[in-house]
Design goal:
The chain is an alpha+beta fold and 396 residues long. It folds into 2 domains: 213 residues, Aminopeptidase (3-Layer(aba) Sandwich), CATH 3.40.630.30; 140 residues, Gcn5-related N-acetyltransferase (GNAT) (Aminopeptidase), CATH 3.40.630.30. The strands form 2 sheets. It has an 11-stranded mixed beta sheet with strand order 2-5-6-8-15-9-14-13-12-11-10. Strands 1-3-4-7 form a 4-stranded antiparallel beta sheet, covered by helices on one side. Helix 2 packs antiparallel against helix 9, helix 7 packs across helix 10 and helix 8 packs across helix 9. The longest helix is centred in the last third of the chain and has 27 residues. The protein starts with a strand and ends in a 13-residue tail after the last helix.
Length: 396
């Protein structure tokens, strides 16, 4: 770095001051930081670590890059982890790992610059408010390469970052990867009915019917946030999470303690959408509230009811976003079924530095073809959206 700045690697979030971290871009709701992203907050990241969800034991060893002045002031950072597997990332590199190891290489450990178990776009090149972003972001990107070399790992992968940050990495020689999610964009709708009026008639009727059917049998919906999030509520939600996680993934990633910690530290940033029948909760979805977005994460249930998943995860999220004036809903990874419910294809970005020249060339060739495919699929899916001609949503 320079005489005034240096990079330090920190293994544990408990050793990082919450006050200094809160001054980084997107990490706090205070001051002028209107880009708040709950997943890069100290509360969220430290809860993952302290709960035993993201630790060396689970294959997520903290390796966070801290950019500091000579006086020890934190002016930039990249949250990062040394990993010996590719689980819980949602940007799949298993094929790269397999090919490299078949050729005699060693892909793991690798450096993963992301939020564990969280496929949501957010800042990765964190720079302190008031600092020179144009100078410090490239410095962080370049420093990450040096950390790869010093740690003797195969690669660094920066996933679910904004497009402008992806371009910073690309200018520094990183490989740019694109993928796709489905987001609901709030075009200033007063309520859900006004949104439905922008849809083609057949689609509009189908969604109204779906919402009615989801709540048959006396099912009601509660929005829980802030002081509503008691330990008893977390017990019930964790039961839902374990049921779905066990069936879908085989091993759920998050521990019960994680929910207690985020409930204690960031309850106002959390929305639980809970479905009740016969006086007890039977299903629920957890969402996180950012400055201008609602981020849907995961759901679970202990009773199966037609269309209830769509109501709890997608329709209710739209209702909440419209009620609070949020610009969009990001409903997590994958899922073309979201398209019919007003969630349109949006490009996501990642950046990859691969130390081995041969593997880098092979991956670069693969990504060139993949980017074209992602773009073509996105255009085709957008044409199949539920909106009337001329009403298609646009994200700023």
């Amino acid at each position: 770095m320079s005489d005034d700045l240096s990079i330090r690697v920190e293994r544990s979030f408990s050793a990082i001051s919450p006050e200094s971290w809160s001054r980084l871009s997107g990490a706090s709701k205070t001051g002028t930081q209107l880009d708040y992203n709950p997943f890069v907050s100290h509360a969220f990241l430290s809860s993952l670590e302290e709960s035993g969800s993201a630790t060396a034991k689970t294959g997520w060893l903290g390796h966070h890059l801290l950019l500091e002045t000579s006086a020890g002031e934190l002016v930039g950072a990249i949250p990062a982890y040394l990993k010996n597997h590719s689980q819980g990332e949602y940007v799949f590199d298993h094929g790269w790992a397999d090919a490299f190891e078949r050729a005699g290489g060693r892909y793991y450990p690798k450096l993963q610059c992301s939020i564990p178990f969280t496929p949501a776009t957010g800042p990765r090149l964190l720079v302190a408010e008031g600092a020179d972003r144009l100078a410090l972001q490239p410095a962080l990107a370049e420093s990450l390469k040096e950390v790869v070399r010093l740690a003797d790992v195969s690669s660094a992968h920066v996933t679910f970052l904004p497009e402008d940050e992806a371009l910073v990495f690309e200018r520094d020689g990183y490989l740019h990867r694109k993928d796709q999610q489905f987001h609901f964009i709030n075009s200033g709708y007063a309520n859900h009915e006004e949104f439905l009026e922008t849809l083609a008639s057949r689609k509009r009727k189908a969604l109204r019917k779906e919402r009615r059917a989801a709540l048959e049998g006396g099912i009601t919906i509660d929005w829980l946030t802030g002081r509503d999030l008691t330990e008893a509520i977390w017990d019930q939600f964790f039961t839902f999470y374990m049921d779905t996680g066990g069936r879908k993934w085989g091993r759920p990633y998050l521990t019960r303690q994680f929910y207690s910690l985020i409930g204690e530290r960031m309850a106002d940033d959390i929305l639980l959408v809970m479905a009740k029948r016969n006086g007890r909760y039977i299903a629920g979805a957890i969402n996180f509230i950012g400055a201008d977005a609602l981020y849907g994460r995961h759901w679970g249930c202990i009773e199966d009811h037609p269309f209830l998943h769509f109501e709890v995860c997608y329709h209710q999220a739209i209702d909440f976003a419209l009620a609070k004036g949020l610009a969009r809903v990001e409903a997590g990874a994958q899922g073309e079924h979201k398209l019919a419910r007003g969630y349109m294809p949006v490009t996501t970005h990642s950046a990859h530095f691969i130390a081995h020249a041969g593997l880098r060339r092979a991956v670069a060739d693969y990504l060139e073809h993949e980017r074209r495919q992602v773009e073509q699929i996105g255009e085709l899916l957008a044409e199949q959206g539920p909106f009337r001609k001329g009403e298609r949503q646009q994200e700023d």
